[in-house]
Amino acid sequence: MLCCCSKEALKAKATQEKLKLREDQKKERLALKEQKQELARFIKEWNRQREDLECEDLRCLPVPLPVQTRIPNELFGDMMMVMEFLHHFSEQLKTKNYFGNGLTLELVERALVEPEVTGMF
Fold this sequence. Notes:
Layout: H1 2-47, H2 76-88, H3 90-93, H4 95-98, H5 105-113
């Protein structure tokens, strides 16, 4: 009789261990699922459109250095547009043939400010 009871006890114990193992695995899967859902929520929140000031990785802007030119301040933007135009169309205008180092701010400034400029301008 002892043998029969011990076999049943062993079977019951094995069954309990299997049930406990299954429950542990189920808990692990649930925890992993929750972790994945939390990560998905975080990524969704991170990727949503938001205002610049709401971002976590804000940095201070560098202190701007003033540009000293003989061009009046209200015309400085126009001069930059001219320089941008000359830069983008340098191949068509063949500026490298006349200006080996390219057009600099000083050259364009001289051409716009001085009444008589010798050379290409």
